[in-house]
What we know:
With 189 residues, chain A is mainly alpha-helical. Chain A has helices at 9-18, 23-42, 47-64, 76-99, 113-127, 132-144, 148-154, 160-181, 184-187. Chain A folds into two domains: 9-99, Rna Polymerase Sigma Factor, Chain: A (Orthogonal Bundle), CATH 1.10.1740.10; 106-187, Arc Repressor Mutant, subunit A. Chain B folds into two domains: 1-98; 105-199 and 243-323, no CATH class. Chain B contains ten helices and nine strands.
Amino acid sequence: MSQSNPPDKNSLVMEKIKAGDKAALLDLYESNLSMVSNHILKNNGSRDEAKDILHDSLIVLWNNIRKPDFKLTSKPSTYIMAVSKNLWLKKLSKAKRESSKDITTLNVSDHPLSVHQIDVKKAMLALDEIGDTCKQILSKFYFDGFSMKEIASQMNYANADTAKAKKHQCFKRLSEIIKSRYNLADFLG
Amino acid sequence: MKDWTEHIEDYLSGQLSPQDLKAFTKELETNTILKQEVALGKLLIEAIEKTGELDLKNYLKKNTTTATISKSKYYWAFGSAAAILIFGVFMYTSSEKPVPSKVEPKSHFGFEELENKTTEAIIAKTNKKSESKIEQTDQDDSALDSFNYIAQGDNPDYLDEYIPESRMMLSSNTIIPISIAAVAPPPLKESTIIYDYSNSKSRALKKEVFSKNKIASGKDKDYLNAANNEKTKEIKKQEAQKKYTFQVSFYENESDTILLCNSTSEEKVDLEVDNLSPENAVILHYKNTYYLKSGEDFYQIYFNQSSSIESKITDTELIEILKGEPE
């Protein structure tokens, strides 16, 4: 037998995800659903909640995989399971905290995020107005965490500098939209 | 002088050289405009990240449900089940058709006459203000006009404690159950609120009473008024037992938007209440109208209302009433 080791399926999937292949996340979803469901069903959760938690875990993986300090020492399934367990624990303790809250203690100052969240939402709406290319380049950099070099090759820019200039221009456009609509001092409270 | 605003992105993504970073931080201490721009930059990045997250989550949701079905060996079974379900729904809707008179889409709660009356009462009250306080209390001493605080996890004992005695128009005996349900949230910007008035008997009665009232005249009117009073009492009695027993649920989607929904209903209502979370949202029932209280703000719950901004209550007198604070 001259055949060398078969290609490691796990590392192949991880490579794909790292390169920005969202469809590879779906493979991980399929292969981990029953395991995550089992855990969540055993811990007062429902099947739908299990799916939701698995989605969130995959998003965590997507966010982390391109970070320079991210190194997966275990199998992807072990990682997904660990993240899912954590997220579920967080969700349970949040629900517990909220159910013990007393209405008298609730007032506006308890929810400082409220105004901030409105602002974020306004900015999210503005993001829809800067065009698909701009939205894509900003998302690739800030959300996906791709380097400018990677973005340049994915989006067919001559080089990282050109891509960076484009990104800068898009970011500026976005902030101009906000500035044209709101008084910055009021907007940021 | 360097235009630091051009370097905000680099600053925020940690890409400034050590010297520039030092200079930038120093400038930031005194330059308010730069400070604002940095704050805006942070906010924009947050919005970009949040949008990315939402998009990815939507992608996963969309593809994991369909993927499971199409790959499933139970596809055939699913198809049959769907067919049976669709057939069932068809049968159900067909059987509902003979009674279209029950459907009054323009009415908020199935009895506009009553609502108009109470709107007038509010106006009258706000004009009269303090002198009508006691009178109003009497009037409100019915299940129909009661003013209920409804909140997740509240118990009636607690409400009794919380509501000062001077606020007579508050009656705390009914808590509409609110449950947090984990459902696949509808896409952002498309939200629905659905009410079900399960007490259909009571609603039908009310229609009868007020329609007679409208066409009656002379002696008949007196007679009908008396009859109406009887019937109104009957309705009130009924409602004291069952009130508006629809279930209000809070559904939280990814962007912390709260949707008020009901599980079973005929009427579809659109309402999106921004930036509320279950723990700080309270629904008030006053004069046949439902209000949502968030912090110090009140929103009227309308049918077919797509923006909570439009439903925000600005009438200070009404807010005072809703707060139930002694004048």
